[in-house]
Amino acid sequence: MDVLQTKRDRPWLMRTYSGHSSAKASNTLYRTNLAKGQTGLSVAFDLPTQTGYDADSPLARGEVGKVGVPISHIEDMDQLFDQIPLDQMNTAMTINATAPWLLSLYIGLAQRRGIDPKKLSGTTQNDIIKEYLSRGTYIYPPGPSMRLIADTINYTIKHVPKWNPTNICSYHLQEAGATPVQELAYALCAAMAVLDRVQASGEIRPDEFSQVVERISFFVNAGIRFVEECCKLRAFGEMWDELTLTRYKVEDPKLRRFRYGVQVNSLGLTEPQPENNVQRIVLEMLAVALSKGARARAIQLPAWNEAMGLPRPWDQQWALRMQQVLAFETDLLEYEDIFDGSPVIAAKVRQLVEGARKEIANVEAQGGIIAAIESGYVKRELVASHMKRLRAIESGELKIIGVNCFQESAESPLTLGSDGGIMKTDPAAEREQIERLQAHRKNRNDADVQAALQGLGDAARSGENIMPSSIRCALAGVSTGEWGDSLRAVFGEFRPPTGIDIAIDSRAVLGKKDQVTELRARVASTGEALGRPLKLLVGKPGLDGHSNGAEQVAVKARDVGFEVVYDGIRLTPQQIAQAAEEEGVHMVGLSILSGSHMELVESVLDELRVRDLASVPVIAGGIIPQEDATKLAALGVSAVYTPKDFSFNTIMADMVDVIRAANGLGRLGPLP
Amino acid sequence: MPPTGWDALDRCPDPRMTQVPLPDPEQLAVRILRRERAAVASGLNLLDNKLAAARQRSARLLAALSGERALNDGHLIGVTGPPGAGKSSLVAALIREWRLAGRTVGVLAVDPSSRPELGGGALLGDRIRIKNASYDEGLFIRSLANRNQLGGVASEVWPMSWLLLACFDIVLIETVGVGQTEIDIAEIGDTVCYVAQPASGDTIQYLKSGIIEIPDVFAVNKSDLGAPAHKTASEIGRSAPRQDRRDGWDYPVCLVSATMNSGIKALHGHFARHRSFLADAGLLDKLRTRHQSAWVVRVLKEEFGTFGIELVGGYAEIGRRLKETPGNQFEECQRMRQQIISRFKSSD
């Protein structure tokens, strides 16, 4: 063979989703990653930035710099892109409710550096629909939120033409349990909702509308069933092509191309035998790379240890090298589409397309995706799919190596290091960010800030495009919390349907039937011994909105006989303790995935003590490293559940025993 | 021999029974009347507790809380309606307005339990839908499962409302209307409000079913929908005032929108007007006494059946005894329980 003479396709953009602690620390990480051959940036923001709060807001406590970088004002943005030429970089920002704001900071920074915004390229995720369904970093109700998305699209089409203003996400739908058919259907419905909204705004001339369609890109998930996933992406391409032609009359086939970036599946990554995640990630990458006609434009891979905690620079490097090996060592990029003409692939694609069409019709009949979200329909469907998946794992029907089969393992040298194989964020980051923000507030011109915020509020009320006034805010030194609060005052805040109101189906209760019967008897007899049915509070403190785990625990606990008060997301420790008191619960269950478990759980315990409720046991679930679990136990937490505890029945049996022990009753032990 | 049958009711059936101490009811009552939140919570837990020792103390607690205030003050409001009518959002809007006016509110939010053969558990999601974002000393929400009890409202709701009435200006009970529930809620609330959903079959069904005789106030939600809301309101308006209802009350039909926050003040006005109407006509204490008696009969019947009722002399005798002990009927009920249990034992 002659490698040198073969024409190769250009590889996709290679990124790693990253950011932590501070703008400065993240900038160092970005420059290191770029030096290693990464070709684009993917910025992870912390939760206060994603939900429009300042670092010194009470709700931000413990969250600053945890799941991403804190960006409170334009000086932070400047530091984040220090020595990175904005006009040559392709920057993806995972930002949604506050997307117009972060984009304004980016544009403002470019203007300050004398760079023409027309040269900026990159993506703001800016898809609010999946935030309502899964990711939970929404702020405003659907109406105003969709308007903000339309505003960014209308603005960038004219002033930042190389920017992808919105990235319709099916990624998080799969994380919330969506089947491939559901992923196709709901993502395409979401795209239609966005395009319809832009069309209705009247800001774009009909002959220019195909440019808007062309700028719509997608952010997709790829799971371990990689043949089906590959077919899903081919189905996406076919359906998008058809939809943009028939519904939006886009004549030029090039403008109808389904453009997508991908982060492969995190849901299937396991905490036991975490090294197995490496082959999972590689296989999942194949799903989005093998088929040239349905190949991703940009790929970011998770690290092997994501189910354990935050990845270290070396873990991220390993993920990047996987992409580089596939792109540069293998012969993949030398071929046209290797699946064209395969009857097996074609049949599978057909089946997915037909299923998705049916579900799209179903959603359209309910008045579109927004109505179907507000009614709770979509959330219910997703929770039901997810429960089905968990049931299959628990019954062993769905095999997960190292989790529900082949569990025996030699000790892994990867996790033996003193850091436990994960990265710790800088504990001083929150304090330093607050100090930096407070110093910034003193240094800026208050009159400019007030005038800019006045302009922002006026634009929000009048319906004028939000971007110009937001850019003025950025340049005046307005903070993320001030921007978020100004719009909260005009738009109000969203209260979500939870999806937990799915009815019990006696045939489909999660777990083995005899175990469920035994659990129900234990829950009932313990309730009788205590004088009233067992009552459980489930809630999520802090800003992390990934509510899937909390919802499943709530539904499962209900199924085995608990009376469950589901209190939702974004709660302060004070609100949780107050709910525990008012509701008279026997146990408080907290779910935290943002890494801020130490601070938040400790605050909840303090608040309970203040209310004389120290005797109410507290359990915690989430991505909690062993070392922290031990510390939490020392603080008084009764049990900690992590992704390795996949059997819900075992968790429930343990919860009953925790309540029994807290009330002077004997433990009943593991299920038979 | 372990205790069996009725004998077991007054003793711990399990020698390894919990040692969690029960509060002293009289002291608790003093703290509840001082509006201490922790005491309110602990009192509600006690009223929910079915252990024999707890039942005794519950009766003492309620006796200590009863009296003038319970008979004459406060306002017990029942809100019911079909699923999807937007009750929780409406309740949230009502509460916001009451709190702005400086009135304190206690809420009992009742959700259905799953069937006993499916574990009997419940997901109580009203709290998340009702509560305001910020901490509020003047609002207290307790969620309850109906526990598959006859009629759809748990029998714990009445004593719990009584407790909340001792320390909150407004006590609001929210239930999902599923036919029978409306009859139950009518035996709890001073004022019953039915929340209708425009253009829905539920409301039409409801109008036909005869349960329309129960509510005192009708709220047609989602008035922002326009014509369908007006249509539903006029349909209800035509059917609501019937000759067998109270003279002097107009059974208002009110158009509201929880999301647009419109019509809320008017609905408040109807509630206040209905309460004045009851008080002025001398009906309020009669109504509450009647509700109290209905509850006593219901719990005795639930626990002991018709046979048990006969053992204390039948319905008429129960009614007579309760009438003689106004304001102290919880203790009288506990006495009747004891009486029935001892008769059962002696008939063994």
UniProtKB/TrEMBL annotation, chain A:
Residue stretches making up the B12-binding domain: 533-662
Keyword Methyltransferase: no
Keywords: Cobalamin, Cobalt, Isomerase, Metal-binding
Cofactor: adenosylcob(III)alamin
UniProt GO MF annotations: cobalamin binding; metal ion binding; methylmalonyl-CoA mutase activity
PROSITE patterns noted in UniProt: B12_BINDING
InterPro entries xref list: Acid_CoA_mut_C (IPR006159), Cbl-dep_enz_cat (IPR016176), Cobalamin-bd (IPR006158), Cobalamin-bd_sf (IPR036724), MeMalonylCoA_mutase_a/b_cat (IPR006099), MMCoA_mutase_a_cat (IPR006098)
Pfam families tied to this protein: B12-binding, MM_CoA_mutase
Segment forming the signal sequence: none
Record bears the keyword Ion transport: no
NCBIfam families for this protein: acid_CoA_mut_C, acid_CoA_mut_N
Homology family: Belongs to the methylmalonyl-CoA mutase family.
Protein name: Protein meaA
From TrEMBL, chain B:
Keyword annotations of the record: Chaperone, GTP-binding, Hydrolase, Nucleotide-binding
Name this polypeptide is given: Methylmalonyl Co-A mutase-associated GTPase MeaB
Upper taxonomic lineage: Bacteria, Pseudomonadati, Pseudomonadota, Betaproteobacteria, Candidatus Accumulibacter
Recorded GO MF terms: GTP binding; hydrolase activity
Region described as Disordered: spans on this chain: 1-22
Superkingdom as given in the UniProt entry: Bacteria
SUPFAM superfamilies linked: P-loop containing nucleoside triphosphate hydrolases (SSF52540)
Domain AAA+ ATPase: 73-287
Origin species: Candidatus Accumulibacter meliphilus
